[in-house]
Design brief:
By secondary structure, the protein is α+β, with helices and mostly antiparallel strands. The protein contains 5 helices and 13 strands. The radius of gyration is 22 Å and the shape is globular.
């Protein structure tokens, strides 16, 4: 850590590999344990850096690997981050209340675990269709809130996202914009827009806890110029049909 007059505390990272997830967890735990505490006497306090720069060949963030990362983060009234890597290029800000605003020129996301699950499901689908259907019925009829549900909801921030060139699991989504608002027991998807060539998707929804029950609904409209609309609708229905999901859709050819 370095300090310069008029600049404040500066952190510089230059390395081949770096896993930032444990550091985020540590910082979050430290902040939550003493968000409003002031040092007494000679108590040590960890200073918050005013600037963080990093050049990392392979950065692990959110369990995902990002290559050739060059980022600059600054802290004032809010955090701001400018990032450039093979998979992402953009600008992110988040305030002290946890609201995130993200604008990306490009964002290419690939989750290896999803590919493994997809391959496993494809290999065994012929022999477990009936069992899967039974399990799905059980899940749909018992939308109990789990500890994992609460953790996921608490981890997702309010966000305003804009991506000019988005890719997911090797598939081009095109232009993507989304707005998510947050309350103590609910996440509201106020807007999700995806525009990829001849296909446009608009969606909104809400996920909330009422007592020990999950309540989720998703409405979306797909506009496409070809007869593939029915296959797209079926795929979306499969993806979205979670254990506590009420699904409604409209297809416009």
């Amino acid at each position: 850590m370095k300090s310069s007059l008029g600049i404040g505390h500066v952190v510089s990272v230059n390395t081949n590999t770096f896993d930032i997830d444990p550091w985020i967890a540590l910082a979050s735990a430290w902040y939550q344990s003493s968000p409003n505490k002031k040092p007494a006497g000679n108590d040590f306090t960890l200073p918050i850096p005013n600037k963080i720069t990093a050049k990392v060949k392979q950065l692990t963030l959110g369990g995902l690997v990002w290559n050739d990362v060059d980022l600059v983060a600054r802290h004032g009234r809010q955090w701001s981050l400018k990032v450039d890597s093979r998979q992402a290029a953009g600008y992110i800000t988040w305030d002290m209340k946890g609201a995130v605003n993200a604008i990306f020129k490009r964002l290419h996301v690939n989750v290896p675990l999803w590919d493994k699950k997809s391959a496993s499901s494809s290999a065994s689908s012929a022999t477990v269709v009936n069992k899967a259907q039974v399990e799905k019925i059980k899940l749909l009829s018992s939308p109990i809130v789990t500890a994992a549900d609460r953790h996921i909801m608490s981890s997702i921030p309010a966000i305003d996202l804009t991506v000019s060139d988005a890719w997911l699991q090797g598939y081009r989504l095109g232009q993507v914009s989304a707005v998510i608002t947050k309350s103590p027991n609910a996440l509201t998807l106020k807007k999700l827009s995806v525009s990829a060539g001849n296909i446009n998707l608009d969606a909104n929804g809400r996920w909330s806890f009422k007592g020990d029950r999950n309540h989720t609904n998703l409405d979306f409209t797909v506009k496409v110029k070809t007869a593939l609309i029915y296959f797209i609708a079926l795929e979306l229905k499969v993806v979205c049909k979670m254990r506590h999901l009420i699904l409604r859709y409209q297809l416009l050819g």
